[in-house]
Structure formats: structure tokens, C-alpha cells
Write a structure and sequence with these properties.
Layout: E1 20-23, E2 28-32, H1 34-37, H2 39-48, E3 55-59, E4 68-74, E5 77-83, E6 90-94, E7 109-111, E8 114-116, E9 123-125, E10 130-132, E11 155-159, E12 162-166, H3 174-178, H4 181-189, E13 196-198, E14 203-207, H5 211-218, H6 224-227, H7 229-237, E15 248-254, E16 257-262, H8 282-306, E17 308-313, E18 317-321, E19 325-334, E20 337-347, H9 352-366, H10 373-389, E21 394-396, H11 411-424, H12 427-434
Antiparallel strand pairs: 1-2, 2-21, 3-12, 4-5, 4-7, 5-6, 8-9, 9-10, 11-12, 13-20, 14-20, 15-16, 16-17, 17-18, 18-19, 19-20
Bound molecules: FE2/S2 (inorganic) cluster (FES) and fe (ii) ion.
């Protein structure tokens, strides 16, 4: 085992000690670092968090036509999303043949009338029905093939085009789970009259850090200036006037979700031209801005156009509507390793020149080789290395506890961790981890 895989063993000595320790009166909030390194914590997270949350699967625009499908892991399980040819509904199926288990959907994406298992050639239609069995007569009369269709994930629901699934049949309705996050999904969905779509192409990368570090980082205003100093220098070199601060507010959206909303100096392809954009797209972007104000009124229209929003939907979905819109999900493969998948969202009817600006903007900051992502990866991996060195037991996440939460405070992380502690933290579990 390498050093980075070796978890420190400096857990709290008392089995009474929670892994998330909040002292409201003392304005102190801290998280034990074993939450980032312990294989037992990860085992319990898979059972307690990922099995009982609504998890992001994809966007309806990815399966726009009947028979369109995408295959992807969700919560560590292999599923695929497909639009039924007859019903036109979006289904999310467990990607396993009901005969003897083989993976049914083997391509990452495409369009198919049927899914034929390569092992013994059982065939399923896009609604999940078993439509073909070679040598069916060999089974005699007893077997009811209508019961052997593909299995849907226990719960599947969509909100404004964002498709979620849950393995918990008893989980609350999606809209109740989303709570205050729904309003922010509305702001994105309402950005374009024709609707939003996922741009073709996916960013996939690994980070040698605990998955919760990316949940924290994605809504962390505090790190933006020091970590992304190069990007801000680049913007200034391109003619942006930057005051040196990102003013904004943080908000607890309920159920572990949080957002920061702030004005930033950069242009937003959705509807705010900036000096970092070419003059040639200014007319189109100004027109989009005027259309937003006309459709939604001055206040909501300018909010959609101007303000940046970094949102975490608990546990592992980030939608950052900043200098481009990124949809990002991530999943642990070990306590110190995660797989990240990211897409970008854009107006369906976007002018080609604006789309090009958006693509450039996305790659410049958010892409895996852009200004931001490598900085963030470096920071997260550095934290993980720090945890693995041991010597310090707790992370401090107290910033701003005694004031109206600002975007560069740490309310967002506390919101996540409180929900995490709710799902994870009973005494039996504490005893196991802290032993
Ligand atoms: S496992 Fe799929 S047809 Fe046998
Ligand atoms: Fe960052």
C-alpha cells in the first residue's frame, strides 16, 4: 500500500465523539479528518448516503429522441438512461440482463431500437420489455417472460430536464428533496426560451482526494482568489476591471444543498457581455439579455443574466452557472480517490458565435486543462496528502459562523456536513470508526 492509500489512525479517542463537531455558542465547527481517509467511512457512505439520496443521472436533452440512450455509473452502480420509443418517457434501468447478469447496454451512448445481450442474445426494447429469447420454446409453458424485463432503478424523476434516480423506494419526492435548490435549477432552465441542452462531449478525470473535498471546493468562495490567482491575472490582462473581491452571499438550500451567489467581473455567455469576450458577440449577448428582462421582468431577468451561482446539490452534484454552466458529478472509488464527470449546459438556440465563446470560456476556466480545474485538483490532492501525514485531527470549517453568511464564508460546507452527519452519524457507526 502506498503512503497516499494509508489512512492515519488518529480518530477521536472517545466513541462518544462525533465526526462532525459543532459548537454553536462557541462558533466552532470542525470535521474529523478520518472522514476523508477511513475505508469504513466510505463503506458506510455507500450504504447510508448514496443508497438514500436522489442522485443525478443526466439531462433529458441527452436522450432527446426515442431510443436515445446514455450509459453511466450512478452511485457506484451501472445504469443506463433511455427514452422509450412508445412512451417517449425517460427510463433509468439497472444495466444487467435478467437472464444471467451480463451488461446489456455496452456503448456509452447512442440510439437503439433494442438492446441485445451479447451473452445469450436475450433482447429488450427501449421500454425495458423482454422482446426476444432465442429458442424460447425450450422454456416450456411455466415461465412468464413478461416478468423478465429490465429492472428500473427504484425511483426515477426529473426536474426541469435534470434526471435523478434513487435506490431508496421510500425516499421523499424529488421536488421535496431538492428543496431550495429547485429555485436555482429554475434560474438555469429559464436562461433560454428554447431551453437548455447538454453540449456534446464529456470531461472525465480522476482526483487523488476524498470525494467530499470536491463537494466543499465547488461552492467555496474563500479559495477563489488565492487558488485561482493566475486566472484573475489573465482576466485583468484581457481588459477586465477587477476590484479584488467577489462580493456575494451564501445560502443554505435545505437537505444538505447550498449555493453562493455573487457578481463577478467576467462575462457570462448566457446574457452578460464582458471585455474578456470578442466585440463581435456583443450584439447577440445584449439581445439575449434584453429578451430575459422582457420574459422575466427586470429583477429576475438581470439576476439570471448577471449573477454567478455555484450550487451543490447533496451529495455529489454541482451545477456552477459562472463563466459557463458546468454540471459535474463525482463518486469515490476509494477513500482517497474520486472519479469526476462534467458536462456543459448551453442554450439550445444559441448563436454559433456565442456558443463558440461559451466553449472557449468553459475550457479556459473549467476544463481539465483550464485555469481553474488543475488548480483545484492540486489543492484537493494537497489536502489529502496533508490528511495522510497525520498529526492534525480536525479540519476547521467555522468561518462566518457568527455573521450573516457571505459567499467567502463556510456556511456551504457546514450545510453539507450537517446533512452528512445526519445520514451517517449514529453511535453504532461512531464506535466502529473510532475504534
Ligand atoms: S446473460 Fe444475457 S442473455 Fe444470458
Ligand atoms: Fe476553484
Amino acid at each position: 500500500m502506498t503512503l497516499t492509500e494509508e489512512p492515519p489512525t488518529t480518530a477521536p479517542s472517545s466513541t462518544e465523539s462525533p465526526l462532525v463537531d459543532e459548537d454553536t455558542a462557541g462558533h466552532r465547527f470542525r470535521v474529523h479528518r478520518s472522514t476523508m481517509t477511513s475505508p469504513e467511512v466510505l463503506r458506510q457512505e455507500l450504504r447510508r448516503v448514496f443508497e438514500h439520496s436522489w442522485l443525478y443521472v443526466g439531462h433529458e436533452s441527452e436522450v432527446a429522441e426515442p431510443g436515445d440512450y446514455v450509459r453511466r455509473p450512478v452511485g457506484g452502480r451501472n445504469v443506463f438512461m433511455v427514452r422509450g420509443a412508445k412512451s417517449k418517457q425517460v427510463h433509468v434501468f439497472h444495466n444487467t440482463c435478467t437472464h444471467r447478469g451480463a451488461v446489456v447496454c455496452r456503448q456509452k451512448s447512442g440510439n437503439a431500437k433494442v438492446f441485445q445481450c451479447f451473452y445469450h442474445a436475450w433482447t429488450f426494447d427501449s421500454e425495458g420489455n423482454l422482446s426476444g429469447v432465442p429458442d424460447r420454446e425450450a422454456y416450456g409453458e411455466g415461465l412468464d417472460f413478461s416478468t423478465l424485463g429490465l429492472r428500473s432503478v427504484a425511483r426515477v424523476a426529473s426536474y426541469r430536464g435534470f434526471v435523478f434516480a434513487s435506490y431508496d423506494p421510500d425516499i421523499v419526492e424529488l421536488v421535496d428533496y431538492l428543496a431550495g435548490a429547485a429555485e436555482y435549477l429554475d434560474l438555469i432552465a429559464d436562461s433560454a426560451e428554447a431551453g437548455m441542452e447538454i453540449v456534446k462531449g464529456t470531461n472525465e478525470y480522476c482526483i487523488s482526494a476524498n470525494w467530499k473535498l470536491l463537494a466543499e471546493n465547488s461552492v467555496d468562495g474563500y479559495h477563489a482568489l488565492p487558488t485561482h490567482d493566475t486566472y484573475f491575472k489573465y482576466l485583468v490582462a484581457r481588459g477586465l476591471v477587477f476590484s479584488g473581491s467577489l462580493d456575494g452571499r451564501a445560502k443554505n438550500l435545505g437537505n444538505g444543498h447550498a449555493v453562493i451567489e455573487y457578481l463577478a467581473p467576467w462575462g457570462r455567455p448566457t446574457a452578460r457581455w464582458g471585455p474578456d469576450f470578442d466585440e463581435g458577440v456583443r450584439g447577440e449577448i445584449d439581445a439575449a439579455r434584453a429578451a430575459l428582462v422582457e420574459r422575466h421582468g427586470e429583477q429576475r431577468g438581470t439576476r439570471i443574466a448577471d449573477s454567478n451561482r455555484n450550487m451543490l446539490i447533496y451529495p455529489n452534484l454541482v451545477i456552477n452557472d459562472i463563466m459557463a454552466v458546468t454540471v459535474r458529478t463525482f463518486m469515490p472509488s476509494s477513500p482517497g480517490q474520486m472519479d469526476v464527470t462534467a458536462w456543459q449546459l448551453a442554450a439550445k438556440d444559441e448563436h454559433p458565435a456565442v456558443r463558440q465563446t461559451r466553449l472557449d470560456n468553459f475550457l479556459t476556466f473549467l476544463g481539465p486543462a483550464g485555469f481553474a480545474t488543475p488548480d483545484d485538483v492540486e489543492a484537493l490532492e494537497s489536502c489529502q496528502q496533508g490528511f495522510n501525514s497525520g498529526g492534525v485531527e480536525w479540519n476547521d470549517i467555522s468561518r462566518g459562523m457568527d455573521r450573516e453568511p457571505k459567499g467567502n464564508d463556510e456556511l456551504q460546507m457546514r450545510t453539507f456536513w450537517r446533512r452528512w452527519a445526519d445520514q451517517m452519524g449514529d453511535s453504532d457507526f461512531g464506535a466502529t470508526v473510532n475504534r
